[in-house]
Amino acid sequence: xxxxxxxxxxxxxxxxxxxxxSFVLCQRCMRTICPECQTQGPVGVIxxxxxxxxxxxxxxxxxxxxxxxxxxxxxxxxxxGKPVVTYTLLAITSAIxxxxxxxxxxxxxxxxxxxxAVYLYPGxxxxxxxxxxxxxxxxxxxxxxxxxxxxxxxxxxGQILEPMLGRVRFLAMYLISGLGGSVAxxxxxxxxxxVGASGALFGMMAALLIIGRHIGANVTGILVVLGINxxxxxxxxxxxxxxxxxxxxxxxxxxxxxxxxxxxxxxTWQIVMLVVLTVLVAGLAVxxxxxLA
Length: 293
Known about the structure:
Layout lengths: L3 H5 L30 E2 L4 E2 L1 H9 L3 H10 L3 H8 L3 H16 L6 H8 L8 H4 L7 H4 L7 H22 L1 H22 L9 H17 L5 H16 L5 H20 L6 H26 L1
Antiparallel strand pairs: 1-2
């Protein structure tokens, strides 16, 4: 029950439906709105009038993106919310990086998680068969600088891509791109031990380039950053450019799948194509033992 004082205060009722009591305020104009008038935003909710104003303020590229992906900017936020997957990946990878700072433990963690083709082909190397290293290498790094730069890139790219794609698609892209990077190392640089999320990050950059081009955004800056980072791997010794190339190719293929199967009625085809791509990438890793024999 409400008190007479509460009922007499019109601020306690929806401004569009005066007969509907509500305790929720629009995050932009701070007026009370009922559930029917609420559109979920990144933080709180937005009323219809503020939503209309927000749509008017969109750039042509933003309007094209909303039409192309079938979602408005707030609808994306409502579906995906905060980039939880990005934060989770950051937390897990950073925690492992901090554990690596402990004397005596760091080298053991790196040795347990790094990737080397010898762990894929026990018949050729005599090492144990440990295929999970194809992915665990994404979560371990070679030092604080390596970790910091990669986590900064993950944070920046994840803030853009995860709300756009959704959590599951974003995570799939990250892991499959990382897998592609490891497989490329196995095929082109067998015997090389690698650590780091660079393959996954290059996949994210390629995806951002493909999706941005698809929605009509200016991708010149992304292309320049991608080119500089890719060239850097050839200039500086000790960097596995093969992982960059593998992640780049796989990330681009995943982005092409996403932009061609973005409608809800194409969801099954999207999943099937991702599974097929993953099997093909894993198949290349398996085929590597005959290529290298």
